[in-house]
Amino acid sequence: MSCCDQPGLIPVEQALEKLLNAAQPITETETEMVAVGKALGRVLAADQQSTVDVPPADNSAMDGFAFNSVDCKESGQTTLPLSQRIPAGVAPQSLQPGTAARIFTGAEVPSGADTVIMQENCQWDSDQVILPAEPKAGDNVRPRGQDIQSGSIIMCRGHRIKPQDMGLLASVGIAEVPVYRRLKVAVLSTGDELVEPGSDLPPGHIYNSNRYTLAGLMEAQGFDYIDLGIVPDNFEATEQALRKAAALADCIVTSGGVSVGEEDHVKACVEKLGSLDLWRLAIKPGKPLAFGNVLGTPILGLPGNPAAVFVTCAIVARPFLLKTQGANDILPTPIQVIADFDRPKPAKRQEYLRAMLSLDENGVAHAQIAGNQSSGVLSTASVGNGFAVHSLNGTITAGEPVPFLLFSDVLY
Question: What is the average pLDDT across 54-71?
């Protein structure tokens, strides 16, 4: 694939393929058992199998009356005596032939009954019920095992546990699950110009936003975040910080120091302490991105500009880190929406535009640019809710489809 007039830049898809091929997932010996209630965001280390049917017995889908359809007339109403009352949580008796049972939502349907009619369609008193004509056998009955059958695999190894998964595991009686230990990710920021929020801001300095963007991203993805703070712009301090990070973590993520300036030392330190396997991507923002290892520990050297850190961490670092964590579902699926903007010039680098997705009066999804797309402008990432993707060498025309990645699919 051509990178136009910027030779040497690696297309995003090729870079991701290289990173994912290099990722070494946590091994199956590095696992722990956690309670289902504490398993959100963790990655399963083994398939999960149900030992029960869900539901465990035929049950009623609503409040009404259970009976055998053969006892109901084909035309006209049928009157049946009531032989029992079955609330949820009570084991029923077998239904006496020629009778009906008062039943409530979720209650087990008694043996001998095959149909439930909702109470709104009936007339009844304490002794009998009048049923409408021609009921359909099986109506309003949830059959045993309708949702899950005993012996079935309900969740596979490598699955990241979501809130609904916690409920599903609980529904089959699983109280604890084996998960991979949390990936340890050491994060550091480089730059003499950086100042921590809460401090005075001297001339020539800026507040360190990257530290907090990366902290949020690491924690949102369920990693064990190791904060190594700010590293001064000199070779010795950078080397010392990288050695420390390699000793503490499974992976290293840095911001700044990977370009070609005299004060950019991360790239040189990586080459001294390990190897640099990838540098300079055809991505915008975020061209100067380094990947390699420091003393055998993988490192992702992100750019220094705040929006570039946000984009490259979401698009490039996240899939690599998730695969290393042992997760299977690591690459987001873009949706097609209608562009409300033009980008008539072919993209020399694949650009991830901070954008706002909204629905028109017909329910059709549209994307518009959230504002200034400079690599130093982070505010548009907060205004937007996803990335409109300006594909490498492609153009965007208002009114035509454009790929869109929701932030919810690339940040968590």
Answer: 96
CA distance 294 to 253: 11
Does residue 107 contact residue 119 with C-beta atoms inside 8 Å? no
At 355 the pLDDT is: 98
Residue whose entry in the numeric block shows the structure tokens 């932030």? 407
C-alpha to C-alpha distance for 238 and 349, rounded to whole angstroms: 29
Residue 325, judged by CB atoms within 10 A of its CB (0-12, 13-18, 19+), counts as buried
Q: How far apart are CA 11 and CA 2, in angstroms?
A: 9
User: pLDDT tens digits for 273-291?
Assistant: 999 999 899 999 999 999 9
Q: What is the pLDDT of residues 139-155, one digit of tens each?
A: 999 999 999 999 999 99
Question: CA-CA distance, 117 to 120, in Å (whole number)?
Answer: 8
Pick the CATH number of 12-26+181-325 from 3.40.50.300, 3.40.980.10, 3.30.450.40, 3.40.190.10: 3.40.980.10
Q: Using 50, 70 and 90 to split pLDDT, how confident is the model at 2? A: very low
Using CA atoms, how far apart are residues 105 and 237, in angstroms rounded to an integer?
Answer: 67
User: Which fold does the domain 335-410 belong to in CATH?
Assistant: Beta-clip (2.40.340)
How far is it, in rounded angstroms, from Cα 178 to Cα 161?
Answer: 11
Identify the bridge partners of residue 180 per DSSP, sorted by sequence position.
31
Mean pLDDT of the chain: 94
The pLDDT of residue 5 is above 90: no
Rounded CA separation 373/369 (Å): 8
For every residue of 61-109, DSSP letters joined together read SSSEEEE-GGGS-SSS-EEEEEEEEE-TTSPPPPPPTT-EEEE-TTPBP
Nearest to 373 by CA among 314, 306, 317, 315: 306
Selection from 91, 62, 87, 72 nearest residue 129 by Cα: 72
| Residue 3 pLDDT | 38
Is 80 exceeded by the pLDDT of residue 389? yes
Quote the pLDDT of residue 96: 97
In this structure, the strands spanning 350-359 and 365-369 are: antiparallel
